[in-house]
Design goal:
disordered C terminus, 5 domains, 67% helix
């Protein structure tokens, strides 16, 4: 009996083992197998889907408590433990262990995109600023970008993560206080260029080359944005969030590249060509089908004129059905306004106070007449036709408003005009002359500086007459330090700025917006005239062209 029982038990054990072999085979079959198209078992397929190689698993310490937790199905708890360790290491300024710990987190949860974004920001923005030497800061910025690139390998279908690489490469390197140094270090960083090459970016292309032929961070940023668009195009996930903000980044990087060239003194054809390329990038953006959150449909930034033209024609068609209907409606609504509102509306714009302006805004809202309002007021015999026109007109109005809103959201019109303006020889000469005047002023060569400034103001006046929006944006505002220099220069001659000053409107704008005029950049005492002090009339020899 005992022998029979023992035999049955052994048979049961063997049968159980054999049965377990089937799920183990299903789960653990290596990807090198020809079965199932070479995909391997379930675990191999999951590793492939999540871009986890066997070597990646070895990056987690096998004897660590977190590995033990992970193997028992407690991966979330393991991640929490690691986050606590990383936080503690950062407080201790033990940055190498911070990096190592977060790397372990990324291997435990490689598809948790927030981890890659968080740590990249931590490395590039938080840890980097703790170092005084800009070379050390650059290395931590580099680590942050490198970490993001690694994240794109595990999340290759996430277009937003790929775009983050472009954002860091552009803005963190090219937008920091130490951007000149960072841009130079990046241009010379051949090992980092190779890393980007390994992640699929063509670093030997003219598309990324700056003036010196070496990779420029802004142009590299532009290529990462292109890569993110390619991912979005062929990814099932598509683009999450705001399409407009997603697509605007690619031409934006080209604009910032052109501006960087001007800031670095390339006031020549290099800058002109860069702005021409940026202009072409903006035109390309204008022709893209972009999902509007306003209408829920795709629209193009360059369709505004088209929609407005159709709307104007539909309004004419409506007016033809009832020539006086719109006018009568407007008169009725004007009569319904309060007496102060009517008085404000009748007041000439130049005579309106802030109080009147507010009343006019409120009155205009009350007097707004939609095409549906006009259709409903039409005679009965044309109401049906008017209703059809109104429906189409309202749709055109909504689309026109949506395009206008989208363009304003990214300052599209300003940047388009800016890129157009910067290509002019006049603009290049104006910047050259202004820079030369500033240089002469700092050297206390006051008379030649004055001549250069006044030539520059004439040029800028011509530019602002042709491109009036530029005076109230970056272009005009960036001239204020030079204007402040000019005002300080005049004070050295015991003169005030003339009443007919060509850029007086810019000065008034600055005074209204900034309340104070920017300080002059002149050094006191001057390098060329050590004895001169602020407010002191210069010595005669320094008033001449020396």
């Amino acid at each position: 009996m005992n022998l029979e029982t023992s035999f049955k038990r052994k048979v049961s054990y063997i049968s159980g083992i054999v049965l377990l072999l089937f799920p183990l085979f299903y789960l653990g079959q290596p990807a090198t197998s020809d079965t199932d198209g070479g995909r391997g078992g379930k675990l191999a397929q999951l590793r492939s889907e999540n871009y986890l190689a066997q070597s990646n698993l070895g990056e987690i310490d096998p004897v660590s408590s977190t590995m033990q937790l992970a193997t028992f199905g407690l991966r979330p708890i393991a991640v929490i433990v690691l986050w606590e360790k990383a936080t503690r290491f950062q407080k201790m300024e033990d940055y190498d262990n911070v990096t190592a710990t977060v790397n372990q987190i990324s291997k435990l949860q490689p598809n948790f995109v927030s981890i890659w974004k968080f740590q990249a920001h931590n490395l590039a923005y938080n840890i980097s600023v703790d170092f005084d030497n800009y070379r050390h800061r650059y290395q931590w910025v580099r680590r942050g970008i490198d970490f993001l690139m690694e994240g794109t390998q595990y999340n290759s279908q996430d277009a937003k993560l790929v775009q983050e690489v472009g954002a860091y490469t552009g803005s963190k390197i090219g937008g920091s206080d130490e951007k000149r140094q960072f841009r130079h270090l990046f241009a010379e960083d051949a090992p980092f260029h190779q890393r980007m090459e390994n992640y699929g970016l063509e670093m030997d292309s003219q598309l990324v080359a700056g003036v010196d032929g070496k990779p420029d961070n802004w142009k590299v940023s532009n290529r990462w944005y292109q890569k993110s668009e390619d991912v979005a195009k062929f990814s099932d996930a598509g683009i999450r969030g705001d399409w407009l903000m997603f697509y605007e980044r690619k031409p934006q990087a080209l604009i910032y590249y052109a501006i960087a060239l001007e800031d670095e003194g390339y006031l020549d054809s290099n800058a002109q060509q860069a702005f021409a390329v940026a202009y072409a990038g903006l035109e390309e953006l204008g022709s893209l089908d972009i999902l509007s959150t306003f209408t829920g449909t795709t629209l193009r930034l360059n369709q505004g004129m088209e929609f407005q033209s159709k709307l104007d024609q539909l309004r004419q068609d409506m007016n033809a059905l009832g020539p006086n209907v719109r006018k009568e409606l407007r008169e009725q609504r004007f009569e319904a306004l309060s007496k102060p509102e009517q008085d404000a509306m009748n007041l000439a714009p130049e005579l309106r106070t802030e109080y009147h302006t507010r009343l006019v805004e409120e009155a205009n809202q009350k007097m707004f007449i939609s095409e549906t309002d006009v259709a409903e007021a039409m005679p009965e015999d044309v109401k049906e036709a008017a209703a059809k026109i109104a429906a189409e007109a309202e749709e055109m109005a909504m689309k026109a408003d949506a395009v206008h809103y989208m363009r304003s959201m990214i300052n599209y019109d300003y940047w388009l005009k800016r890129c157009e303006m910067e290509q002019l020889d006049l603009a290049i000469n104006a910047r050259k002359t202004t820079a030369a005047a500033d240089d002469l002023f700092v050297k206390a060569r006051l008379q030649p500086a004055r001549q250069e400034y006044e030539q520059a103001w004439t040029m800028w006046t011509e530019i602002f007459e042709k491109y009036p929006t530029m005076i109230s944006k970056d272009t005009g505002q960036n001239l204020m330090p030079s204007i402040a220099n000019y005002m300080e220069l005049l004070s050295q001659f015991d003169e005030d700025i003339p009443e007919d000053f060509a850029l007086q409107s810019l000065v008034e704008l600055a005074e209204n917006e900034m309340s104070v005029t920017p300080e002059s950049k002149i050094q006191f005492p001057s390098p060329s005239n050590p004895d001169r002090r602020k407010g002191e009339v210069p010595k005669p020899e320094f008033l001449q062209d020396n």
